[in-house]
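Case study B.
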Amino acid sequence: MKRQDLLEAVGNIEDRWVEEAHAPRKKTANWMKWGALAACLVITVALLLPGTALQKPQEPEAMDGPPSTTINGIHYMVSSYLEIETELPEGFVYGGVGEVDGQTWEYYVNPDIPTWVYVCQEVYDNITQQSSMKYVRYVDSRIRGKDYISYDGRLYVSMWSANYWGDSPDVTEERYEQVEAEYGIRMKGQAPANFVHLGKAEFTGYDTIPDLPLGCNTESPEVYLNTKDETILLASTVWYTAPDANGEQRHEGYNLYILCDDPLK
Amino acid sequence: MEDKTIVELYWQRSGEAIPATQQKYGAYCTTIAQNILADRRDAEECVSDTWLQAWNSMPPQRPAVLSAFLGKITRSLSLNRFRHDHVQKRGGGELPLVLEELSEALPGGTETEEELDRRQLEQTINGFLAGLPQKKRAIFVCRYWYADSIDSIAARFGMTRGGVTMCLSRLRADLRECLEKGGYAL
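Model:
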């Protein structure tokens, strides 16, 4: 096999992976809610220029990254779940005027949810080719895109979403690599014998930091605790692969979660 | 204009089909071509050839995902141009780096002359991608399908350059393991 063979084989991957890669990251519930509209909104939110009521999206190579803003020293990035509302959500009040990637818009805050702000901004719908004012959720960048489980007053982050680099790592690189070497990022099959079943986590909502006795901010998995090392949790999951010689397609197993510090500290 | 409307224009052999395609996907296909070829004129020629190939493909084809259908044509044409014009001697965009990186994903870490079942290889790679979380899969596809630069990927996903590099390194190692388990020669 040559590297050119790999390059050509990658060229024939499924169309959905090609489309997905250049669309904003999203989760199933909100993606199904917004459909193709959501695929365009994040790209276009940051790209409307002053003085243009209707602005077609810029070429992809001009995009600087997810729209973001800094308010009172906290950096917020547009929700990875594309939470966009027609009406201002309950509990949010006018907070002032801020900038999103060079554009000035009004923003709204909720003292009970300091990790979110809603920005009232012009959003271009690539399907209707119309712009309208919407309330777009921006999330504290320290928690944006993170999968968390809370248990017994402690917070755990998924190995999939944990950062061990940058200014605010969730875990040290050494610890991450240690856990990955011992357990991996995801395991298939039954939980090992030393893991005890804690119960079904309660879904606390996307973009939240769960604080329930057993809570999760992505779904409601069955959760297991490593009795030999209580810094490790397992959360049940299902995934799918292309059929092989055995016809296997659906897999059941667990995502690894690792104890982390308070991300807002 | 909706994709299905554009596809219908091709089926009706309407003169509006290519202008509509160009308006909606011109920038998208140009990005793909430029990532591979770097030279703007070469990239423009490949994009123009994409519209011709699309015209000749529809009918009989009626793609469900028009962006991916067109993108694959552009990518294939660009890769052919890259090979035939030896543009790697002039820099060749991201492609030389992408090929260098893919070397790490080869079973055994080296190139071999073995005969390949290309269909099986594609199936193995699709299986590998299906097993990845969405973000990591998207990062892989951005780098090795779109040939996006590391900086572009970092900006798209709100990561640092080092984070993207580390992620891609792990993905290549995982792909290599997947290929080795799939029975490809070491």
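The helical segments of chain A are 3-11, 15-21, 28-34, 36-45, 173-183. The remaining cases will be described in the next quarterly update.
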